[in-house]
Structures are given as C-alpha cells and as structure tokens.
Amino acid sequence: MVNDRFKISPYLALFVISTNQIGVGVLGFQRIIAKSAGHDSWIAIILAALCVHFLLFIMYMMLKKTDGDIINIHQNIFGKLIGNFLSNLFIVYLIVQTILVLRTYLEVLQVWMFPELNIWVFSFYFLGLAVYIISGGFRVVVGICFFSIVLPLYLWFSAAFPLEFSSFRNLLPIFDHSIKDMALATKDMTLSIIGFEIILVFYPFIKNPEKSHKWAHFGVMYTTLVYLVMGVTALIFFSPGQLEKTIWATLSMWKIVQMPIVERFEYIGIASWMLVVLPNVCLSLWGASRLLKKIYNVKQKYMLWAIALFVLIISGLLTNRKEINVLNEIYSQVGFYFLYLYIPFLFIATLILYKVRNKE
Amino acid sequence: MFNWFQKKEKKPKLFEQVYNLFKKSSDFFNYYSSEAKTPFWVCYQTTIVDSKILHEFILPYLLYYPLESAKDIQRIVPIEQIIVTDKIEEIRDKILTGYVMVQLDKNDRYCALIRSELNETREVGIPEVEFSVVGPKEAFVESLDTNLNIIRRRLPIHQLRVKELTVGNLSKTKVAVLYVDQIANKENVQTVLQRISDIDFDHINDSSYISEIITDNQFSPFPQLLDTERPDRVCSVLVEGKVAIIVDGSPHALIGPTTLVEFFSSFEDYYINWYLSSFFRLIRGFAVAFSILVTPIYVAVLSFHYELIPKDLMATLITSRREVPLPPILEALFLELTIELLREAGARLPTKVGQTIGIVGGIVIGTASVEAGLTSNVLLIIVALAALASFTTPVYKMGNTIRLIRFPFLIFADIWGLLGIVYCFSLMLAHLLRLTSLGRPFLEPIYPLRINDLKDAFVRLPFSKLSKRPTYVQTNNRQRFNPKDAQEKKDIDE
Q1: Which of A19, A136, A336, B292 has a Cα at 20 to 30 A from B359?
Q2: pLDDT tens column, B15-24
Q3: What's the complex ipTM?
Q4: Residues of A whose CB is below 8 A from B304
Q5: Chain centroid to CA B98
Q6: Which residues of B touch A258 (CB under 8 A)?
Q7: B434/A264 touch (CB, cutoff 8 Å), yes or no
Q8: Edge-to-edge strand order for the sheet containing B82-85?
Q9: Does B419 touch chain A (CB under 8 A)?
Q10: Residue contact A264–B310, C-beta within 8 A
Q11: How many angstroms separate the CA atoms of A220 and A199, rounded?
C-alpha cells in the first residue's frame, strides 16, 4: 500500500492526465489527421476525444473494482505468472514511449533551433533532470505536471495571431468525407492524445481515488480543447495544399506571431515546450520504474537509473528521421491495439471475474 | 585581598572542589567572611556577576542574619532564583552563567547558588535589515530575555509557550522555542524541539547556525526558515500558528514552517493600504523574475537567436555592441562580477567609505568600461537594473540566493540559448518542488494549490478577507475571527 504522505489530491489527476496527453504531438498533428479527413478533421478530434473519454471511463471502472494498478488487474485475471509477464510488456511500452517523446522533441530542436545540437549531451542533461525530479517522489512529478499546464498557459495567446490571416471558409462544406476517412482520422488522432493510460499506474497514489474520476475527464476535456483550438486554427490558416506540406503546423503558425519586441515567436514556443515534454518523460520513467519495483521488489531508484541509462543510449543511437519514424509506426500500432482491443478486453474480463467471485 | 585568611581557614569540601576547578582563572574570586553572624564562604566569576546585586541584595542579608543551613539563604535573601544543591556539575555550570556560590562554614553539605547575573546588552534599536517607513520601529537585540520581554508585551496571553533548550557543547547557548498553544500544530512544535535537541555542535554563535543545522535540506541555496529581526513579524506569525526560534546572542529570530512566497513579502505590506501592498508585491515578483532572467536572455539572444528581436531593436543593440570584442557571455560575466564586487566591497567597508566606493566605483567603472569598448551600453543598463531589482527582495538571505542563482542561468544561456534558460528554470522549479520547510511543502500555495492561502501571497487582500490561518501550517484552529462580523452588508442609506 502507498503511504498517505505520498498521495496526491484528486483534482491533480486533471493535470497528470492532461499533461501526459499533450506532448510533442501538438506541434504537428494537423497534417496527419488532415491526410484522410481534410478540412473535416476537426470532427475527428472530437470523435477521438469521445473515444478517449469512453476508454478512460472503463479504465476507471476497472481500477475501482480492483482498487490497485495494472499489476493487480493482470494478476487478478491471468494469475501471477502470466499477469506479471503482461505487466512487463506494459513496462516496455512505457519505456518506448519515453524514448519516442524525448527523441521527437530533440528532432524538433534540431530542425528548428539548433541543427548542431549534440543528442547525447542534451539527452544526458534532460534525463538527469527527470531522474532528479522522480527521485523527489511522485508528489514532485505531479508538481512538474501541474506547472507544465499552468506556466505555458500564455501560449494560448499565440493562437490568436494566425486568425488575422485565416479564412473560415476553409472549413466548409462540413461533413464532406466518408465514414471510413473519418474513422482513419480518428484513429490517427487517438494516437496523438495517447498518454492517459498512465492512470493504470498512478491510480493507487490518489487520495480518495473515486473522487478523481471527474477530474480525469476534465483533464481529457482540456486536452481536447488544446487540440481543437490548434487544429481548427491550422485548418483555417493553411490552405489544404499548404497543410499537406507543413510537418510542424503549430510551429509554422507561431512564426507569424509578432510583438513589439519579439519576432520569430517559435523560438520561445519551442524552448517553453521543454516544460511540456519534461513531465511526459518523467511520468513514463516513473511509471516504468514503479511497476518494476512492484513486480520484482527491487529498489525503485536503481531501476530508475537503469532505465534512464537505457533511454539515453537508445535515443543517442537513433540517428535519423527514418529510424524514428519506424519506431513511431510500431509504437502507434501497438498503442492502437492496446487501447482499442486490450483495454476493453481487460475490462470485460474484470467484470466477469468479479461477477463470478460475487456469486461464490 | 583576603588571601591571608584563606591560608588559615579550612575550606568546606564542596567549596574546595569548586575552588580547584576555577582557581586558574584570574577573574574567579572567593573569600571567607568571618565577621558575619554565621561565617560563610563566597565565590563567583567577577566578570559576569552584577556587583550591584551582590552588594545590595545578597551580602547584607548574609552578614546580618543568623543562618542555620543553606535552605535559610533561600528564605532570607530577596532574590527569586536561588538553588540549593551539592552537585558539583550543576554548581560549575551555574557559576559560569553568573550565579554566586555561598557555603556556610558549618558542616553543611549543601551550598546555595544565587543568581546575580550581569546583563550587558545594547538598547533596543530600530530595524536596519528590514527597515520599514511605517509601523513599529523596534528590533530584536542579542539578549534572549529582552527579546522574550518584547514578544510577551505584544502577546499577553497565557497560551504563549516558551520552551528553553541549551545547545552547543562549548557555547551552552540558550535557545527558546516559542509557539501559541491551541493554535500551533503539535507536530511542527515537536519537529522543531526534536531537531534542536538533536543538534551536536560545539559552538552556536547565532540563529543562522541553528537555521543551517536544523533546515530540511542543507544542500539547497534557498533558505527554508525565515529569519527576521522584527518582533511584530514574529508575533504575527506566532498567531498564525507558526513556531519561532529565538537564540541567545542573536538579534534574528527564526520562523517556520514557511513558504517561498513569504520570503518576498515585506512586513510593511501589512501596515499600508492593501491595494498598495498588493501592487508592491507584484512589483517585487516582477523584479525577481527580471533580475534572474534578463541578463541570461540578453546573452541567449545575442549568442543564438538574434532573429528573435525586431530589426529596429536589433539596430540599437548592434550599434552599442559594435566596438565590443568580447562574446556576450564574457561581457555579461564581466559586468555581473563587477556589480558583485561593488556589493561585496560596500558590505565590508564602513558605511561612509562604502557609499563613496559604491558611487565612484559604479559610475567610473561603468562609464570607463563602456568607453574602453569592453561592454555595451545596453548591457550596462540591463545589469544595473537587474542588480537594483535583486535588492528589492525584503529578506536579506533570499536576496543573496537570488543573486547567486543568476550565474547558472547565465552559463546555461550561453550553452543552449533560450532552451538553456528553460532548462535551468525547470531545474530550479524541480528543486523548489522538492524543498520542504519543517516537512511542509515550500511552494505552497501554488503547488499544492490552496485558494485560501493565495489571498495573502502574491497580493494581500484586506484584513476582513483574511479570516483563516494559512493552510500549510496545519493549525488546530483555522479561524482567526468570524468573517461575518467583519463585513456587515448594509443597504443604501441604512
């Protein structure tokens, strides 16, 4: 059991869920969803959000029944041996997530700010900071999540600048795409707002976890709002042909922000984005090391150092865009099946299990 | 002077032991009075005993009253603190704190220790470190008794508890822990008492020693206990439920638990209109951010991101930097270090010389280095403003911390530009998140978010709105007063 001293208030679930969903994806998701759904892709954002709400809901149902984390769920359904094996796969999933988030952010840095940036050195410092934060305990990790939502709030203003040059007619006609296209866009979108599954790890760290349910949903709503604003702004700012060629649409929109003493706002944006990426890395590192501790009964800090070292080496060895894309593809596929097949399966299994148990 | 007596008379055993302990000190004094009704032996350290008390209130009574035993001394001499004992350790310690030892020349095993301590302290002065234009003008002094007296007068309630401890193997410093019973959280009090009694250190000179030893994280540049020289501040936080530590020999009291925000609130904020104090607090917050960030941003922009600034402003910057051969980081470090030198020299020199050095040094070096082409005008202005801003921090120790943490920011700005600044900021944020003050979160009320405490953090709302004590103190009694009485809602013309 987790000591009460290390638990967080229920409302903080909003920040944890939301910040883990918002990551590097926001900087360039517009092109990906527009590929299949074009100017209707904003509907896909809403549909994806509804899916996430549903998935989050069944996760909470499962967690409330089990009153533990994913390890308990696995062990309940599959028994200790197979259950722990599956939890190990989830740990690998979290570690890959860490690598991808870190490496994609570094990619943005290299493309937009410092082409010569040394991946090894920067990853080392970045992971060092993450390890320092996680060593302070979950409370400190959540603190960073909190600030990563609160401090970059000023970036909202940046969404107002492109409006001057946008044409709302880009959105018309509405519902101009087939259901299949919409479904594809929704799938692509879901992968951008992935990250809420971290609830499967930190649920036991919430004081009165039942009360956090609504806050978690508010968190998803906030994320949806961010994506919706960024998505719609991009759709009306870029023409469809332009958007196809713009990899980092949000960054390109920041380029036209102009203030009396600031030109090229994207520099400020990208630098501030570190605060947004940092909690993602922290949460998945924390989650992976926490689960390892619980399964193998080892010291969490050693596991943390080991994983951080592993992440450092892998992200240093990934040298070009192609390799990152391959990893991204695999991760997306796994994430898709994990969310849409595995989670509902776990949910049904848990339901049946508790039904049977209650009868006995 | 009475040496010829001592040769003849045989000292009682206990007295002999004490005499042997102290006789090598030349300020130790002892004599035998054979003229008294009951002959007795007296000894004391002349340098710490008030001779006025000795001659007016002790010796006359001893000389003219018949005494049977040491207990009688307790009855007859009109001084409250008289101890009758035969323990040599106690006698030794008491003599060293200004007690006079008296032993009757009978076969009495016990001796009496009479307190007649000489208190040499300076007058209660005006606060110099935390000066305020309005509000009370008294500051703590070095004497513990005087300080306690000032506090007691401001808080005449029986719930105000004073727990006295002695710490320091050699200095035997008296440390008083103050709290208001029924308001202060027992856990906080217990933590403080426990940590102070655990102190194992030879010489405690000042409250800063205690602060450094009992602080939650010794390796942090941030002070985690507030120190103040204002009795009004101490009293007001005692009433909020915090714990104060007063150390004998130190004019600074320590207060805990505290938060980062409290270090940026001057106590004068409570003496002026709340609009003004809120405004000043915001100004101070801005000043801190400015002082930490502005030079690093200059370095970052001129080293990496000159596209960031519009070309009109760029022209100004380039013109002023045209003659400068140094890279921005060296230019900035040179000026920052100059300012630090001026500050340090000003702090070490006597006031009048210090001022002259400050003005001459500042103006002459500044102008000359610009003319010599070592720095640009713009950076000179920025650095001077940043220095000025850093001095607005009301608590001196926090001001020093602010001045220190600019340097890592500068260095990271030179390595990774804006990214480095954000990195350093995240590091600072993570550090602050990990800090605690007596086990309570240091960043409260921002994280964990406490709406009630925000009323008196970055702004100060009027007193009628501050009806609850701060949450992080975890006081037993949250309510300061009934808010309904404070704000009676009236209709027009009623």
Answers
A1: B292
A2: 888 888 888 8
A3: 0.94
A4: 113-114
A5: 26
A6: 310
A7: no
A8: B28-33, B40-45, B99-104, B111-115, B82-85
A9: yes
A10: no
A11: 12
